[in-house]
Amino acid sequence: MTANRSGQRIAQLAMMSCLSSAIVYAQTPTIAVATAVPTPSVIPASAADTSEIILTARAADSVRIDKDRHLGERRDAETQWASMREQAEKLRAAIAEVKDAISAVNAKEKLARKDKRDNDRIFALTEKKQLERSLSLLEGRYALRLAQAEHARLMRDQLDAAIRADDAELAIAERQAQVVPNDPSQRSAFQELTSRWLQALRSQTARAYDVEDRRFKVVEAQIELLKRQRG
After folding, report:
1. DSSP E strands: which ranges in 131-202?
2. Cys-Cys crosslink for 161: which of 56, 203, 218, 224, Cβ 3.0 to 4.6 Å?
3. 166 vs 145, 152, 187, 226, CA distance in Å?
């Protein structure tokens, strides 16, 4: 009987212990775990996509006037180039003839010296001097014609680039009247036309440097020819 009471007592104590643990766990505050919430990015106004109009086309009529002028100047440059090349070829042939004449006079002078014909030798030397002066002038003119021919060719190339730039600008000017506001395809088309325009302008500018450089050489050739004429 005593043993039964002792077992009941132990069971009651175990049950009370379990209840006490459950009460303590229920009263313990729950610690909240912070969860990271993404915040939206703030894009500054300065980083917004901005489009700048690189070049503004003139009125189509103005561009056509410039193109017509460039076409006329190109024809003149082409004609000038052909003329200078033709003159240079003639001068080159004349230089060859004078050189042959100088060789003949040298032979005459040598023979007169050998035969002790002083008058003939002096006459040959005088003739040689005149021929050498003619040769110097012909060579100066030849160098000038070559420089002028190259200058005309470079002018033609520059005008070709100017005409391409006119065509690109004209395409933009004519398309402006058909623009639909905020149309991405229109914007892309204008950017492509602007790229063509800028490429042509860059080529035109590069050719302009070449033209000026050759113009400098033309002036140098003119100065050299003047020196030979005065000499």
Report:
1. none
2. 203
3. 31, 21, 20, 40
Tell whether the model's pLDDT for residue 141 goes beyond 90: yes
Three-class HEC string of 25-73: HHHCCCCCCCCCCCCCCCCCHHHCCCCCCCCCCCCHHHHHHHHHHHHHH
Query: 192 near 224, Cβ under 8 Å?
Result: no
The total number of residues written for the chain in this structure? 231
> Is the pLDDT at 219 greater than 80, yes or no?
yes
**Tens-digit pLDDT profile for residues 74-133:** 999 999 999 999 999 999 999 999 999 999 999 999 999 998 898 989 999 999 999 999
* Rounded (10°) CA dihedral 208, 212, 213, 215: 140
Residue 153's Cα: distance from chain center in Å?
Answer: 19
- If one compares 8 and 124, the residue with the highest pLDDT of the two is 124
* Neighbour-count burial of 106, counting CB atoms closer than 10 A to its CB (0-12 exposed, 13-18 middle, 19+ buried): middle
The answer to whether the beta carbons of residues 224 and 161 sit under 8 Å apart is no
Distance CA 184, CA 53 (A): 15
